[in-house]
Design brief:
Elements (H helix, E strand, L loop, with lengths): L6 E7 L2 E6 L3 E2 L8 H18 L5 H10 L9 H12 L2 E5 L5 H9 L2 E5 L16 H8 L6 H20 L1 H16 L2 E4 L2 E4 L2 H4 L2 H9 L4 E4 L2 H5 L11 E5 L2 H7 L5 H8 L15 E3 L13
Parallel strand pairs: 4-5, 6-9, 8-9
Antiparallel strand pairs: 1-2, 3-4, 6-7, 8-10
This protein binds 7,8-dihydrobiopterin (HBI) and fe (iii) ion.
Family: Belongs to the biopterin-dependent aromatic amino acid hydroxylase family.
Catalytic activity: (6R)-L-erythro-5,6,7,8-tetrahydrobiopterin + L-phenylalanine + O2 = (4aS,6R)-4a-hydroxy-L-erythro-5,6,7,8-tetrahydrobiopterin + L-tyrosine
Keywords: Iron, Metal-binding, Monooxygenase, Oxidoreductase, Phenylalanine catabolism
Length: about 300
């Protein structure tokens, strides 16, 4: 039962005061967005929809259209919540940025998706490291309209709360699953490779790279293999994992992960660019342009 969050402090930002609540929830200060903020949204939205034609999952594009996101100005969370709530019971809540993992998992477990309330500056339009409103709203939110993916995200949140109680290794295993599916996942749709991961769909460069570059590996989804695989947060991915459907993703998260964590505990992590003999290899990458320093 979600209780209304308690206002705890006013956060000073360059746009005045934004009230921050106990669970990290802030109200979307829609009236404080500048013309530049709205123009940044409109530019990124138009550019990405152009890049994603023929590259993004049809289910992603249909879901984004069904949400009725305004392409010309930053959408109001409350308008999107009316549509999203009816479709799958999910709710967008504004946040300041990355949340402590347990807070993040608790939101997902209660069908609340945290969306950063601010958007990047015009001079950051091509890249920003931390997730801003465009990454969250354009990238993550549309698929919450898809009932199967919406169930997966809630199951993931519940799994995260449990993993947090088990320990750091379990949490690391689960974070890798999020990274290689929700953030950087590919899907096979009607026999063709398509993008659904938010980190890719919100990046023009990585949308092209993930689909067309010879450099990265593309490997069939394997839950435990993914949970062991390191990743990079500072460059395009060295490896992308491909699911056959969102149902496959949901089925993979049905079992209790506790015995899986126990099995993985003694096994070494797999470097981000490595290909295993047991992998279902769709494309073995050339490794061209890969950073040569260690993976995280
Ligand atoms: N917080 N607001 C926000 N958004 C995220 O995507 C997010 C987070 N905190 C932690 C986190 N993601 C990752 O560690 C996930 O793998 C859990
Ligand atoms: Fe993200």
């Amino acid at each position: 039962m979600s209780t209304a969050p308690r206002r705890v402090e006013n956060l000073h930002t360059d746009k005045g005061k934004v009230p921050v609540y106990a669970t990290g929830i802030v109200e979307q200060p829609w009236d404080d967005y500048s013309a530049a903020d709205h123009a940044t949204w409109a530019t990124l939205y138009a550019r990405q929809r152009g890049v994603l034609a023929g590259r993004a999952s049809a289910q992603f594009l249909q879901a984004q259209d069904a949400m009725g996101m305004n392409p010309r100005a930053i959408p109001r969370f409350r308008d999107l919540n009316a549509v999203l709530g009816r479709a799958t019971g999910w709710e967008l809540v504004g946040v300041e940025g990355l949340l402590p993992e347990l807070d993040f998992f608790d939101h997902l477990a209660n069908r609340r998706f945290p969306v950063t309330w601010w958007i990047r500056r015009p001079d950051q339009i091509d890249y920003i490291e931390e997730p801003d409103l465009f990454h969250d709203l354009f990238g993550h939110v549309p698929l919450l309209m898809n009932p199967v993916f919406a169930d997966y995200m809630q199951a993931y949140g519940r799994g995260g709360v449990k993993a947090h109680g088990i320990g750091p290794e379990a949490l690391q295993n689960l974070t890798r699953l999020y990274w290689y599916t929700v953030e950087f996942g590919l899907i096979r749709e009607a026999g063709a490779l398509r993008i659904y991961g938010a980190g890719i769909v919100s990046s023009s460069g990585e949308s092209v790279y993930a689909m067309e570059s010879a450099a990265p590996n593309r490997i069939g989804f394997d839950l435990e293999r993914i949970m062991r695989t390191r990743y990079r947060i500072d460059s395009y991915q060295k490896t992308y994992f491909v699911i056959d459907s969102f149902a496959q993703l949901m089925d993979a998260t049905r079992p209790d992960f506790t015995p899986i964590y126990a099995r993985l505990a003694g096994q070494p992590a797999i470097p981000a660019g490595e290909v295993l003999d047991t992998d279902r290899v769709l494309h073995r990458g050339t490794g061209e342009g890969w950073p040569d320093d260690a993976d995280t």
